[in-house]
TrEMBL record:
Keywords: Cell membrane, Membrane, Transmembrane, Transmembrane helix. It holds the Pfam family LptF_LptG. It is found in: Cell membrane. PANTHER family: SLR0882 PROTEIN-RELATED (PTHR33529), YJGP_YJGQ FAMILY PERMEASE (PTHR33529:SF6). This is Permease.
Length: 348
């Protein structure tokens, strides 16, 4: 294909791509502002605090915009070329329309690289700052860290707590829904405390059950040894750095669902940026079949909604174990690769 033709097509797509990135950035920032404007009016934060909150989510919004703008740009660019009969002229000149699609993927490899660096290095820490910024706006301290369904099983014993609520000093925590099995007895209590410095659990008014004896209510606290280390609960997976996610996915003491979620996030951080390249191929093949701008706008909507449905469904499937984390992360891209292949076969 003539290099001049490639440059003309890329110039047309680039013009629409810049407009698309600006459009999706604006829409997402307006959505974030509209969902928080009532809180901003209620708490009247200083401008610098409000600006810090929105700057912290800007990298994540940028990543989404870089990817979402791809089908927008290609479909509208091709619809304009269809309307002005440029694609017909290219085909009449002996250039198969499908050959226009492959060069489109090359510049979006650079977009994918930018999105990967941003999503892997910058977005996680900024999402954590978003939460912190809002607690500063509320003028309240950060909530206590809570770990759900804690389990520790040293030889000959089992320790369980429905919730472990850190008190913030790093050495003590409040326990809720406590069960301790040691030797031939089982202790249960609705609440208790954990002193990691003394390496003990203290159960408040526990019930004690022993084989062959009725359960007995103890009307005073009971302290039992507990040699595990009090660790802070894991941060949200999307707010965690990739090295920490790898450690979490390989940690046998982490709940299986949390391990799967960590493994899913690791793969998604590679899969999501490459969506720009997949979109370029699928949207390019689809754009060659459209005949007017109205159809292009409808195709953009169907394109993005279909992808969004898949993209938002697979995390739950991965966490529940219905799909492997790797397959779940790649599934939206795989679906659109198949779409691109089917459209390419139609155009061959």
């Amino acid at each position: 294909m003539p290099p001049l033709l490639i440059r003309l097509v890329l110039a047309e797509v680039t013009r629409w791509y810049a407009a698309g990135v600006a459009l999706f950035l604006s829409l997402q920032m307006i959505d974030a502002l509209s969902s928080t404007v009532a809180k901003l009016l209620q708490f009247r934060p200083p401008v610098d605090k409000a600006a810090l909150a929105f700057l912290s989510i800007a990298p994540g919004i940028l990543n989404k915009s870089l990817v979402l703008a791809v089908p927008f740009a290609i479909l509208l660019a091709f619809s304009r070329m269809q309307r002005d009969s440029e694609l017909k002229a290219i085909s009449a000149g002996g250039v198969p329309p499908l050959r226009l699609v492959w060069p489109l993927a090359l510049p979006f490899v650079l977009v994918a690289a930018l999105a990967y660096v941003n999503g892997d290095r910058i977005v996680p820490s900024n999402l954590a700052r978003w939460d912190t910024a809002w607690f500063n706006i509320y003028n309240i301290p950060l909530p206590l860290q809570t770990q759900k369904k804690y389990t520790y099983a040293p030889p000959g014993a089992l320790y369980y707590a429905g919730s472990v609520i850190s008190t913030g000093d790093g050495t003590t925590a409040q326990l809720q829904g406590v069960m301790v099995q040691r030797g031939g007895e089982i202790l249960t209590a609705s609440s208790g405390t954990w002193d990691s410095r003394a390496r003990t659990w203290t159960l408040l008014s526990p019930w004690r059950a022993r084989p062959g004896q009725p359960p007995q209510l103890l009307n005073k606290p009971l302290t039992v040894p507990q040699t595990d280390t009090l660790r802070p609960p894991p941060a949200k997976a999307e707010q965690t750095t990739t090295p920490d996610l790898r450690a979490r996915a390989a940690d046998p003491q982490v709940l299986p669902a949390d391990q799967r979620e960590a493994a899913f996030q690791i793969v998604r951080r590679m899969a999501d940026p490459l969506t720009a390249v997949v979109f370029a191929l699928a949207a390019g093949a689809l754009g060659l079949l459209l005949r007017n701008r109205a159809a292009a706008f409808a195709a953009v909507l169907v394109f993005l909604v279909s992808f969004y449905v898949l993209w938002t469904t697979v995390p739950g499937l991965a966490r529940a174990g219905a799909l492997s984390p790797a397959l779940a992360a790649w599934l939206p891209n795989l679906a659109f690769v198949l779409l691109a292949a089917a459209l390419a076969w139609r155009l061959r």
